[in-house]
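Run log, item B.
One chain of 546 residues. Sequence copied directly from the ordering sheet:
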Amino acid sequence: MREMTGGEAVYQTLRALGVDHVFGIVSVHNIPIYDAIHRGGGITPVAVRHEQGAVHAADGYARATGKLGVAITSTGPGVTNGMTGIFEAGFASSRVMMIAGQIDSVHYGKGKGFLHEAENQLPMLRSVTGRTESVRRPEEIGEAVFRVAEDICTGRPRPGAVEIPIDFQYARAEINIPHVEAWPRKAPDRDAITRAADAIKAAGKVAIWAGGGVLTAGAEGELTQLAEALGAPVFTSGNGRGSIPEDHPLCIGPLTAQPALTESIESADVVIAVGTRFQAGQTRNWSLPLGGKLIHIDADPGVIGRNYRADVPVVGDARLGLAALLKSLDGAASDPGYLARAQELRDATRQQIRREIGPDYEAIMDSMRELLPRDGMVVRDATVPAYLWGNRLMPILSPRTSLNPTSAAIGPALPLAIGAAIGSGKKTAVIQGDGGFMLNIAELSTAVQYNTPVVTCVFNDRGYGVLRAIEGRTFDGRQFGVELATPDFVMVANGMGMKAERVESAAGFRDAFARGLAHDGPYLLDIDMTKLTPMAGLGTPPPKKS
């Protein structure tokens, strides 16, 4: 314990937690924290253009690196701007912490209308976090930040937040800075592992369902070993993509919602689910049958049995649970015929999706995968190309290289990609629609300022393509609120100092994407979807250019 300012206490605690980047906007309610970071060194502050972008970038950083992602905001409007990012991080079980300012403690709670006063900021934050604290004395700052980080980083990750009154950030006090070498992992119960192993040994057909918790635990090696030991097909959730390479013969991939794959899942004698909540999208709103017995391994006991009844619940860290299971198998193996049928259905489904997206998007997808390094990042927004091929078909070949908004929000892709690229240093491709792109378009300037290796591919149909299709199917073809006055994205990017070009064909995309990857820094491609062969199943197509 030693004397320091509250701002210095935040900085020292972040350093003790191993934080090396923070994302945010300097304001009058957090400036002592930024000053301490500036003086202390070792932490790079990334100045975004909007607090929503700050939290999304911290989220992308956390998902790409496995580290704690930190966003620093003002109180009041800074926090409300960042709420969408915290909401998304919660859906994705991402290690994200918001450090927010608060008005002077002498004015807090009095409703006087002080600058950026936010009387109910705390309960608002608690509605989307696992743990949120409000500092009541300067001496508490280090411990409060540490407690929130501990909650975020142990068990199933949930975002957290801490608010610190501005006078406490300036105040000097004797403050303790906690330290941790590594967060503890929950070991599974031995009896539960024995019961799980016995169920597997008695089964003829074994399937594995891998969720994002596999990547959180760094258990992709153990997952692959288990699959290979059993000869079992591996289905993945959206967040579980990359837990086993999607060119591995045992990987079925994120196709659980495809009707053709129902047979494989339903006919399994045992499904081993690891690190998953069985969210709605992957289970067709929980109508998907899971076959015989369900072994569910998860660090969060609250998610086991929430959506599917677990015959063998195993509460524990995914890596420890899979490792213990591997040691207990005694040569157990799945039916080779079952695996072969699952692979046959997988291949047929992939071919069907290729036919549905058509030759132009098939070529674009293949070019993107071929040119992007194996460990390159793929960040997708909630947009038609992502739904129809990016989320289902484009191969993910390395862990922590696949990101998308789990909450299905539009707009997060660019700031997610910026955070991921800054954290990983890897080439990053963004699959974005023009409608969603407008929500965070200002972050192009952030990408330029930090020279992030992000190639933003804007698939431009001058509107909200997903909603256009829904309206076309639902309201006798009536269209409303889905057509947009879309700016010249090349001109906008150029105006922010970014290289950009237009794309009007699949062949043109390949050449332009290669130039984008070769460029030292960010790049933008404005892809005119009206010039490409339409994808099937979209309902009303985008209007033709006059």
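Observations after the first pass:
- The chain has 21 helices and 20 strands.
- The chain has three domains: 2-175, 190-334, 345-531.
Flagged for discussion on Thursday.
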